Amino acid sequence: MNITSIKTQRSFVSLIIYTFLTLGALTMIMPYIWMLVTSIKPIGEIQTYPPSFLVRHPTLKPYLELFHLLPMGRYLFNSLFIASIVAACNAFFCSLAGYAFAKHIFPGRDKIFLLLLSAIMIPYQVNLIPCYIIVKNLGWLNSFYALIIPNLAMAFGVFLCRQYIMSIPNDLIDAAKIDGCSEFMIYRIIIFPLIKPALATLTIFTFLSQWNSFVWPLIVIHNNSMRTVPLALSVLNSQFGSNFAMVIVAATVATMPVLIVFLFLQKYIIQGITMTGLKG
Question: Do 165 and 213 share a structural domain?
Fold first, then answer.
């Protein structure tokens, strides 16, 4: 088999792979494109059969109605504030704990880490009642404290950071210690810059989890002004379910912040997930 035939065969295989990947990407993105297109259609075009991607008379009236009838801006602020604070705190605290478990030797380290991992296997529904009782006794109901503090650090984040930090050579840390760096300085100037892919992955996962959280806010939040976007969508669907245009617009607005965060950090995701598995 000559070189030309090998190149032709590889090109054919690559063409098949890219064709399947393109079809898969289109399958994933089509529902979102349909949602965006539908959100700017008047109600008459939305109800037209057969449905069409063509928008004959684009309008922003459903967006104006959404923000007029509901304090959607307040709901978006609540979700953005909670998800951003929780994601940032998880990136900081989990990376610190991951550094300790990966590069420090102390009594019971492996057993403590194993105990921490076992927390991942416990269904979150088991913790709802104990957490609610604690939050209620602390007087945190209907406040940001109830939505932020219980989620400041998660076992999955510690595991993710620990696995990534283990791939960092010990020589870098030893050299920093010889130069007189403190532990936190080592973390700040060596560990933190090198684990940005893992932190970006953790940030996206945490932000998405908090943004979509429904059960816990439903339990601890009762005031209208403290509702998050998932709670607002639930109320909107129950009160304005017949107004399909407004429901579509609300879903579109709710997905925008997550999409923006993903677009900013997407280049780190594959690298972060891949590198965390280099060392066990």
Answer: yes
Based on the fold, state whether residues 209 and 136 are members of the same structural domain: yes
Based on the fold, state whether residues 179 and 246 are members of the same structural domain: yes
Query: Is the bond leading into 50 cis (omega within 30 degrees of zero)?
Result: yes
Does residue 136 sit in the same domain as residue 38? no
Of the candidates 279, 264, 280, 272, the residue with the CA atom closest to the CA atom of residue 95:
272
> Distance (Å, rounded) from C-alpha 80 to C-alpha 89?
14
Amino acid at 16: I
Same domain, 11 and 127: no
Q: Look up the CATH number of the domain holding residue 80.
A: 1.10.3720.10
CB half-sphere exposure, 198, CA atoms < 13 A: 31
Question: What's the confidence (pLDDT) of residue 200?
Answer: 84
Distance separating alpha carbons of residues 172 and 161, to the nearest angstrom:
17
**pLDDT on residue 1:** 52
Which amino acid, one-letter code, is at 225? S
Range among 51-60, 225-234, 252-261 with highest mean pLDDT value: 225-234
Residue range 195-238, pLDDT digits in tens: 888 888 888 889 888 998 888 999 998 888 888 888 888 877 77
Nearest alpha-carbon partner for 211 in 229, 231, 225: 229
Tokens of residue 121, six digits: 């296997």
Please indicate, yes or no, whether residues 80 and 15 belong to a single structural domain of this protein: no
For residues 27 and 75, state if they share a domain: no
Number of domains in the chain: 2
DSSP 8-state code for residue 191: I
Pair of tokens at residue 174? 């030893």
Q: For residue 70, is it left (φ>0), alpha (ψ between -120 and 50) or beta?
A: beta
Closest CA to 72 of 244, 274, 236: 236
